[in-house]
Amino acid sequence: MIKNKKILLCVSGGIAAFKAAALTSKLVQAGAEVKVIMSHSATKFVTPLTFQALSHNEVYTDTFTEKTPENISHIHLSEWADLVLVAPATANTIGKIANGFADNMLTSTILASSAPMFIYPAMNSNMLANKAVTRNIHRLKMDGYHVFESGYGYLAEGFVGKGRMQEPEQIIAHIELFFDSDKLLSGKKILITAGPTIEKLDPVRYISNFSSGKMGYALAEVAQKMGAEVTLVSGPVTLSPPPGVLLLSVDSAAEMFEAVMSQFNDVDVVIGSAAVADYSPNFAENKIKKNDEEISIDLYKTTDIMKSLGEMKTNQFMVAFAAETNNVEENSKGKLVRKNADLLVSNDVTQHGAGFGTDTNIVTIYSNDEEPLHLPKMSKYNVAMEIMQQIAKRLK
Ligand code: PMT
């Protein structure tokens, strides 16, 4: 996957710069074309000559040393790259990128580039926990950069803690997955439920919830991009379906159940991100009239769609969601079992930036085969990417 890819490696000044040299060597061995930019501080740890020898390319350290008159180096490099890696990314460089600084060759190139960017923080554990650094990392994630967790282990300071740069082998695995993601789900049929349901009380009133459909539509978009054939069963929302996705529009939980059942036998994966009503009233043919009395409405249980599918499933891979406000972990684990799901994506909808209506979500993915995967706040699109990668890994 990496063969012939153009990878721009940006090395900032930390002790982990030595790992960037090993990374360069592995990328070149895998067939990538690698160009390296070093910050001035990085050259104090490892010399540019090391990277030149390993990459077989000249190394860039200074914005004002223009090597070829035909182009401006930092603009040329920013357009040349298929993927930009910042490894190691120091607290200083992270701060500069997060705040749009362009005061050296490395940051100027990054500011000019629209290539996908992978950032690998490496620093002392106290620096990593610092509020400003945490804020800057968070900002990068919100801006769409892929910021990877630092590793836990022996640090140069002589103690064990969090802050190590990820190992070159792990970084290569991320890159392979990235370049392969177009085809990760090709040949798979995926059914996704999204949005709210509305349960009519009478011709003018209904019971519903705050689901906007953003989570489910992001899942549909990512699944489609990864090569899957996607059917989206959606309650009433204001979003347009991603191009190429088959949309089945429904209103009520009962209609959603019917639509899902009509597709179930043909699909490989079902993802239930819809907020389906658990209870529905009897529909009054005429508008319920106001009078002086209090009224009460009887509500009847709807069919639990995901639970029914869980009981029927043969080879389908099933992903349920859980929208929780309390006892989040216990309730989510219970739903994973009761719905006979393979993955359970849990969101605590009381958290700021999580759940209904927001552009971001904060989820934990529960499974039967791995420890829970706690994800930080990220865009719903990136949450969808993570979920699809978890599915693809297991379908393999
Ligand atoms: O649409 P957004 O504004 O982007 O918001 C996203 C979201 C909060 C709706 C989404 O992230 C989410 O949590 N979806 C599940 C909402 C929900 O109904 O959760 P639940 O815990 O009540 O249900 C558990 C699972 O059972 C879900 O997969 C649900 O789709 C399914 N279910 C529930 C009831 C029912 N009658 N049939 C079902 O299939």
Structural account:
This protein is α/β, with parallel strands linked by helices and 396 residues long. The protein has 2 domains: 6-179, Rossmann fold; 185-286 and 293-395, CoaB-like (Rossmann fold, 3-Layer(aba) Sandwich). 35% of the residues lie in helices and 24% in strands. It has helices at 17-29, 42-45, 48-55, 73-80, 91-98, 105-112, 125-129, 131-142, 168-180, 214-225, 253-264, 305-312, 328-338, 380-395, and strands at 6-11, 33-38, 59-60, 83-89, 117-121, 146-147, 151-154, 160-164, 189-194, 199-202, 205-207, 229-234, 246-249, 269-272, 279-281, 299-301, 317-324, 343-348, 360-361, 363-367, 373-374, 378-379. An 8-stranded mixed sheet has the order 13-12-9-14-17-18-20-21, with helices on both faces. Helix 1 packs parallel to helix 3 (48-55) and helix 10 (214-225) crosses helix 14. The radius of gyration is 25 Å and the shape is elongated. The two termini are 17 Å apart. The model has no long low-confidence stretch (mean pLDDT 94). The structure holds ligand PMT. Ligand PMT is lined by residues 193, 195, 211-216, 253, 272-276, 278, 302, 304-306, 320-323, 335, 347, 349, 355-357.
